[in-house]
Protein 1
Amino acid sequence: MPQDLLNKLFHSAWRSSWVKKDLKKLKIGLYHGLSHEIPIGIQKTGIRSVVTIHDLIHERHPEQYNSIDVKIYNKKFRYACAHADKVIAISEQTKKDIIEFYKTAEEKIVVCYQNCNPAFGKTVSEEGKRKVKELYGLPEQYFLYVGSVIERKNLLNICKAIFLLRNELNIPLVVIGDGGKYKEQVKDYIKQNGIENKVVFLSENSSAGSSSSFQSAVDFPAIYQSAIAMIYPSFFEGFGIPVLEALWSKLPVITSNVSCLPEAGGEGAYYVNPLSAEEIAAGMKRIYTDKQFAASMIEKGWQHAQNFTPHKSAESVMNVYKSVW
């Protein structure tokens, strides 16, 4: 982090270029841009560099960003991929996108998978889950959605699946996440189809709004572990951390058969066409009614989650460092 006042005031400029002066002063030999960016001209300093690219969603779905941001992201990401000594992609999908959009040499890109907060892998006691459910007024049984309420993440089709199941399953959906125009579109659908009592926007709950343990996600493992299944039929992701959080929580996952989501879910997820509310509904019904099937999903999901440990993530990144320095 910058130390002097000028660099603090112009933090973006410091990060994008001025930081080189501090790197040389501190005799830094290797710089890792953790989020899509390296300092301009770092390749001329003799300092080796690595950049992590999480996703190229702004390239695939520019309509989700304002046009100025798309231009800024394009310039920064493209420059980083061109001039870093190695590029870390967080999934095979992201690697493919880097090659497709920026024509980066395949041998320059290394896939290093992420891990999630280890708290999701720790079993919450029944008493702990009960307290969290009481605090937020959660239903006794519920399906779970976690993520921004934006079109790409596809909450509307989950709600359509809830509507399709209205006479078969009286199980609500709990939503953790917020949004703007698309959220209002989803809420309009919910109201028009009379399923207001089947969709709970937890982020609008007064207890959630005032709870530091909700805002910091401390209570999320208990919320996950109390659910029937995570439903995450996103159209496109860089990786899909909620899928991994659910697998570590021993929670069945319904997710999309596109993008990187089969990488995140492995054999432990139930895959659907994200365009099909019918397929989502079928998955929800099967996981709820077929306990043996749900149990097998949990076991397979837990085994797959072991590929995404903090140790494995750190080791893969360290191997990249060793390859350039």
Protein 2
Amino acid sequence: MRDWIRLLRPQHWVKNAFVLAGLLFGHAFGEPALVAAALGATAAFCLASSAVYAFNDCVDAPRDRTHPDKRERPVARGAIRPRAALAVAAVLAAGGLALAAWTGPRVAATVAAYVVLNVAYTLGLKRVPVLDVFAIAAGFMLRLLAGTAGIGIPPSRWLLACGFLLTLFLGFGKRRAEIAQLADDAAQHRPVLEAYSTGFLDKAILVCAAGMIVAYAQYTLAPETAAAQGTDRLILTLPWVLLGTFRYLFSLNFRGGGGDPANELLRDPLIALAALGWLGTVLWLIA
């Protein structure tokens, strides 16, 4: 059972919290129908993302066997047969699409696009420099759209801009961490890493981090934000964003971390504190 759970990677479901951002910033958490729709969309993405992980593990099993960490994945070490993992992936994808269809046709279309995007990523996009990171960011944007336009909440352009820059920042950070961890064997484990240099990735990370912070600060100070959220004090949440960003950069540059943002959130107490502090402050200000 542990092998099957590891195949589905439930610890990565935390990424699907992006779906719930629309409830928070759209002030819809008091409307039961929208809350139910958002939770349904989140659950659909959890099933779909687990299907993607299982499919990816089957395709990448030969390369994963030579990776210092990924060789422990159930398919790579032979604990689960590829055919069985593919069957589970198909069932999960079908279940996710069915749940998304129950939530609404727009959510179903978004989840379907997410599955297609990630299949394309596994089969080829992850080998194209820069486009690979944009594909990862697009997956998160689909989560945001499912939790906003998909359930009838108009998406904020600020929310979309901040979300896109955040996911680009984490995506380039992940590539930087992989190069640092795998050193001379990086291209053997992930071919696209041969095209990257630490200098380029460091610049891309700083550009995305700066853009994200500036966009978020502008969002908190914008008059339309104050009107929509009923408070002009959202700037008080900026220190939490800065703490989380700089702690992640510290982990990436000095502690060999950053390769898995979900694990960083769960394992690093300061990053977890920044996330919880930000969420608590937002709720205190606008709820």
Protein 3
Amino acid sequence: MHVADFNADAGVVTVRDSKAGKPRHVVLTAEGQKLFATLTAGKLGSDPIFARRDDGVWGKSHQLRPMLDACNRAKIKPAVSFHVLRHTHGSTLAMRGVPMGVIAEQLGHADTRMTEKHYAHLAPSYVVDTIRAHFPTLRIAEESTVTPVHGRRPRPPARSGRILSI
């Protein structure tokens, strides 16, 4: 990822070489925007954002050992990978009630099927909350001031006093 891949105005980074083979934009939080602004300050657009100590470019597996070392120093057992961090990001969004379509877009999924398969179960109230938040009130149930006592059935409403003959 190069400095030019960070758009400070939009608060996104562009992943040009994604698994799907097409570029995608990842939205950054305010905290992420500050981090990327710090990492890119004073650098040219063609400079890498994450430079190795020897100024070389990171290869696909070059992050494994530093990530393992970081987990060991932080006493994270078992050690996590960048894939686990990606899954944690999606899971956190799902548990906070973010719509599956938004999570799919953020993770670069082509549609919501993969997102729902891996993340919908983490938001058990997702369907309930979504339906209740978006369905209109039909006014089909009478409002009552009677509060049921646990274990008892509420009494039927009082009649008008008329006696019905059969």
